[in-house]
Amino acid sequence: MGQKELQTGERGLSYILIALGLFAVYAAAKISGSKLTISSPGAFPLFISSLLLIFGIWIWGEKRKFSPDQYSGYGEKMKALGELIFTKDVVVIISLLFLYSIGMNFLGFPIATLAFLWVGISYLKRGNLLRNLLISLLNLGVILFIFKLIFKVILP
Q1: pTM above the 0.85 mark?
Q2: Fewest CB atoms within 10 A around its CB: which of 6, 7, 42, 45?
Q3: Radius of gyration of the chain, Cα coordinates, nearest whole angstrom
């Protein structure tokens, strides 16, 4: 099996994931202190941050290479990286997240979340709007059930 070439930004992403993973493991370990058990407050964050670190190292350790020769200058490399990362869908979802964060102040958590989910799912799936609304309502119901009733979190 031949070596696959890294896409633009994959090596940089692995460095970012490793750095973030190390920081998150450190921060999660501080939550529980020396008394880490399966039900301690830092157990789940430690598990997730460990996965982040492991996958960052895995991406970094892949025996693939990125060929810088395909781009003549630094500007072309940055342009290719920007085109890879900021696709139309990514820009639309980031914009929706921005509007969602503003809308939460005016509409409240349930209505803003329902609107965000419905518009986001409708944009990405491009399917039946009524079905997407039902999926959004179901997701909102699960979120509210888990956080309000089980974890007893006060939502904005």
Answers
A1: no
A2: 7
A3: 20
